[in-house]
Every structure is written in structure tokens, then in C-alpha cells.
Amino acid sequence: MDLEKKRKKMLCKGRGKGEGKVEVESSFSICDLPDAILQLIISSLPTKEAIRTSILSKRWEHLWRDISKIELEEGELEERRQFMHFVTRLLVTCNCSSVKKFSLSCIVGEDANLVNEWLSGFINPKIEELSLQFEEIPEPLVFPDQLFTCATLTEFKLDMQHVLKLPSSVHFRCLRTLTLSNIIFSDTYSTQRLFSGCPALEDLSLIDCNLKNVEVFCIYSPLLRRIYIRENEDDMLDEDDDDDTGGLNVTNSCKVLIVGTNLKSFAYHGDCMNEYFLVHSTLVIDASIQVQVPPECYWDRDNTWEIDSGNFTFRLLKMLPNVEKLSMSETSIMALSRTTSLLGQLPLFCNLAELVLDPLSSIELSYAALLTLLRNSPCLQVIEFQGGLSLAKGDANCVFDPLPVCFSTTLKMIEINGITGKKDELFAIKILLQAASVLDKLRISCYWFSFDLDDRRIGLKRTKELCKQILKYPKRSMDCEIEFEYS
Length: 487
Known about the structure:
Blueprint: H1 3-8, E1 10-14, E2 22-26, H2 35-43, H3 47-52, E3 69-73, H4 80-93, E4 101-107, H5 112-122, E5 129-135, E6 155-159, E7 177-181, H6 188-196, E8 203-207, E9 216-220, E10 226-231, E11 255-259, E12 265-270, E13 275-279, E14 286-291, H7 303-318, E15 325-328, H8 330-338, H9 340-343, E16 354-357, E17 363-364, H10 368-375, E18 382-385, E19 389-390, H11 396-399, H12 406-409, E20 413-419, H13 423-435, E21 441-446, H14 456-471, E22 481-486
């Protein structure tokens, strides 16, 4: 009996006169599904669970071998030999040509040859999504050449602190998402070859990659919509130069040209190690500039570092005149404030509607760069102080002189997170309430543990007292609602 007949086979029984109740009984079960559907279901399971379905029945014994998704992650060190044996057996028993999504995370160590065999076996010409994460790599891994010309690959994530060896031909025809972490690029030519071979790229992330051997390269894709760059010198090795071991010399600065005629989102988090230039950047509407303090300057913020970081922040802001949402770190604002000669050259951000400030530290409301941003953003609607804010009484006279236009025309919401009740913090809140004449809502978040108390009950009491105190502050906007969130 075919599947359609089985679906129609039902027993309908009436229960009593006039009750109108029908009992339906069906003989259909999951085993009646065709193999192709069952393999899709099995592929949605974790890999080990998918293999265990082979014990269900004779029919299920071999179904798992054609699964389309394989995820492999090494566990505890004492289970390493077991993991290596499992992956090797899996490579032999499953049908690798059916795999469309493959993920592997492991320590390479002394087993580089074995890992190379896995890469050659599991990465087939029809792979669609690939995620690879490797640690402790003593020698270059060998990726199959077919990977770099794969016509079906749409998402590629590679995380390894080692040189990326590229073949002579690189062409990811359909690659839309590329995430590279800790990669060491060997030279300018091969780096350019990689990014030129991604014509369909939409989403690019470069996380702690080492560009010490690269002078300049261009990232160009007509479809590129989002780019995220993170570079932290503290995360890189401090050893002698050695391309094969990953030793770094981060004194060389690379120039990166980003050409995206469809670019909408740009994010930079780091300590200004390289230079970035945005072409057609007027299309960017969502941007994040999170400049951080380099590790060698953390305890000694010399004037040279501050000026260099301020210049870096200024150059990025100049390339983002049409941004609608902007996130900035406290360090970015502080460093930019030191470059007083450049503040007058900042553009007007006529489309900026939301300004988000550092979630990790409090912002001084008197920072010259912050005040300039507010005055250059006539249509600003929302400000978020995610790490709190402060203002000394001595700075009150000049902080809003002149008053930013948005405070009397468009600023509808201010959000302040993580307040602790310090005098400078409460004074800043009082000044904001007195300055914003069209404000609809002031949302304040505070947490009992912020008071450095071990007793939650006492902390909550202090929090509620703080809220009552703020409610008594005079407001220039009579329609302003003050909303508290505390826990």
C-alpha cells in the first residue's frame, strides 16, 4: 500500500446519537516517510545522536550515512584519543559527498597529518557551509584546492592562529558570509587574491587577524553590506617573527581600502593598529567605533597615543556623514576630545537618530568630542549611556553653552544604565532633565550589586531611595516620564 493510501486509511466512529463527535484513527507513522525526508530529519540532530538512529531498525541502519550536516567539537583533553578515533571512523563510514554543512573544532597538535586527511575527506565540491576552528598548529594545514574554487559555498568561518596558505586560484562564486579569526596573512598579493575572489560577499568579519606582512589591500564587493573588524594587540603573540609559528611584529601598519557600493553597516573595535579607508561610505547607516587602549598604554596614557587614536577616530567619523545609528566607546570620545583642532572639522550628522555610548565605562558629559557630536546632530532622537555618565559641578556652566539644537527639537529619549548614585552621576542626570525640553522618556537602570554591598535586601533599598531622589529633580519637559528598572 503506497503512502497516499495509508494517509487516507482512517476509521471514523460516532459516539452516541446527536453528539457529533468523531474519533479518527490513523495508521501513519514516521517510518512511512521517504528516505530523503528521514535523512533531513536525522541531519537536524547532533552528529552523535544522528548516528545512534542506526539502532532503531534494519531500515534505519544506514540512513544516517547520507546526512547533510556534521558538527564535530573536541571535548576534554583526556577524551582526545577517543575523539580522534571517532572522527576517523566517521570519515570512512559516512557518505562525505552528501555533506553540505560541516563544522570542526579541535586542537591540532601532533596530529596535523590526520587533520589534513579529515579536511580532504569531509570538504567536498558541493559543501555549502563550512566552519573550522583549530588550536595549537605546529605546521601549516593543507586545505584541498577545491575548497577555494567551490561554487556552492555560501558561508565560511575559519579560526586559526597561523599563516593561511592560499592556492594560485581563489574564486568563491557564491560566498556571502566570510569570518576570519586570528589568521596570519602571508603577503600583500595573496591577501588581495583572497578578497578579489569573493564577488558575492555580503557579510565580512576580520577578528584579530595579523596583517604584519601586508602593506595594502582592497576589499571590494558590489554586494557587501556589513563589515566588522576587531584587532587587539593584546590578543596577539609577543614573540620573534616566524611566519610558521605565528610570532608577530605588529609595528607595521597595513592600509585597508574598503569599497562597498551597497555597504550599510561598519564596525571597528580595536587599538588602531592599521588604517582603514571607506569608499562610497555615504551609504553606511549603522556604525560602531570602539577604540581601545593598547596594552602598553593602559597604565600610562601618554599624549602621543591619545592624539593618534583621536586622529584615527576623526578619520572614521569623517567617512560616515549619513550614519543613522552610531555607537562609540568612552576611549574613542576621550581620545577625540584631545584633538581639539579637528573637532571643528567634524561633519554635520543630519541623519543621526540614535547615539549609543560605551557599555563598559562611564562617559563624562563634559567631553569636548561628545558635546561636538551632540551639536552636530540636529535630528538626534535617542541617546543611550550604556555604562553610565558623570558631570562635575565645575563643568556645568559650559557643558550646554550653546545648547545642542536636538535638545529643544527632536531628542525624545535618554537611557542611562548602571547608575550607582555618585554625586557627579546624579548631577549629570539633573542637567540633562533641565536641558531637554521635548523629552518624552528618561529610562534609568540600576542594580543593587553596583553599591558594593553583599546584602541584596539593603542594596534594593538603596536603589529605591535613589529612584525617589531622581523623581524630585525639576524637568524642563513637562511630558517627560521617568522610568526605572532595578533589580
